[in-house]
Amino acid sequence: MLSKHATYNKRMRLQKFIAECGVASRRKAEELISAGRVKVNGATIREMGSVVDPMKDSVTVNGERLTSPSASEKIYIMLHKPKGYITSAKDQFGRPDVAALVADIPHRLNPVGRLDFDTSGLLLMTNDGDLTYKLTHPKYEVEKVYIARVKGTADEEAIGKLRTGIEIDGKVTAPAKAFIIKQQPGSTSIKITIHEGRNRQVRKMLEALGLPVITLKRIATGTLYLGDLESGKWRHLSKTEVRTLQKMYT
Ligand code: URA
User: Fold this and answer.
1) Which residues contact 142 (CB under 8 A, 6 or more apart)?
2) Are 139 and 197 in contact (CB under 8 A)?
3) Span from the CA of 148 to the centroid of ligand 1 (angstroms)
4) pLDDT tens-digit series, residues 53-69
5) 20, 66, 129, 162 — which has fewest CB within 10 A?
């Protein structure tokens, strides 16, 4: 996906990278390259056409490693994950993963928690390990809000069970917030808020009540709301959104 928010290209000419790191002008960088004083991943480079990936390649000038000014920058992305993408990086079945949807960002971003292959909705991606820790550690009890459309008719008894806790995989879930938002012929839409992050938790809770999930979408995580972000698109979090998250979970 090409996003209007994209500001970087992953790969760039070696002399441009050296100049961006503030070591020398682009012209001077060319002289350094010709003089054999520049190495990329340990190999001396003398050709002017060389291209590097600032996030992956190790570039040294006179033996000193250069750091891209943007490498240490903290990036926070809200992605509207479509169904049909996996959240983890490696998949034995070769299914597409969410990294492909944020490929125009040069930073190595990690998803905060996971959404199933078939689940859509809000997925936060960042290179901020501290925030990832806080948003995923059980002690912070970060709320995640989902809209589930299930097969069948959910009654108040079923909703009550979601609210008190349901045994899945031998352990009772923490009380959830749950409301019926729409009753259609043959299906029910339920808004459910949980703060645990067990594997396929919402699906399993609903299945345990005889309500198999047709679609599942996450609409909020902590203080973040998906809003009208289109499926497959991403946006940077605002400074206020980042600050609010950091303050909430300290
Ligand atoms: N619960 C699920 O069952 N699936 C998800 O993707 C997230 C929460």
Assistant:
1) 134, 135, 136, 195, 221, 222, 249
2) no
3) 10
4) 887 889 999 998 887 76
5) 129
- For residue 119, give the ligand 1 atom closest to its CA: 6
List all residues whose CB is within 6 A of at least one atom of ligand 1.
115-116, 119, 200-203, 216
- Of the candidates 133, 136, 152, 155, the one whose C-alpha atom is nearest the C-alpha of residue 144 is 136
For atom 3 of ligand 1, which residue has the closest CA?
Answer: 200
Rounded distance from Cα 6 to ligand 1 centre (Å):
29
Q: How many CB atoms lie within 10 A of CB 142?
A: 23
**Atom 4, ligand 1: residue with shortest CA distance:** 200
**The predicted structure's pLDDT at residue 3:** 34
The answer to whether the CB of 32 falls within 8 A of the CB of 18 is yes
Ligand 1 centre and the CA of 139: distance in Å? 19
91-95, 190-194, 217-221, 239-243: the lowest-pLDDT one: 91-95
Kindly tell me if the per-residue pLDDT of 43 is higher than 60: yes
Instruction: List the catalytic residues.
Output: 116
Distance CA 156, CA 64 (A): 66
Mean predicted lDDT score pLDDT of the chain = 90
129 alpha-carbon distance from chain centroid? 12
Neighbouring residues of 5: CB distance < 8 A, sequence distance ≥ 6: 234, 235, 236
CA dist 167 and 205 (Å) reads 8
Is a pLDDT exceeding 60 seen at residue 239? Answer: yes
Element of type H or E holding 190 = strand 187-194
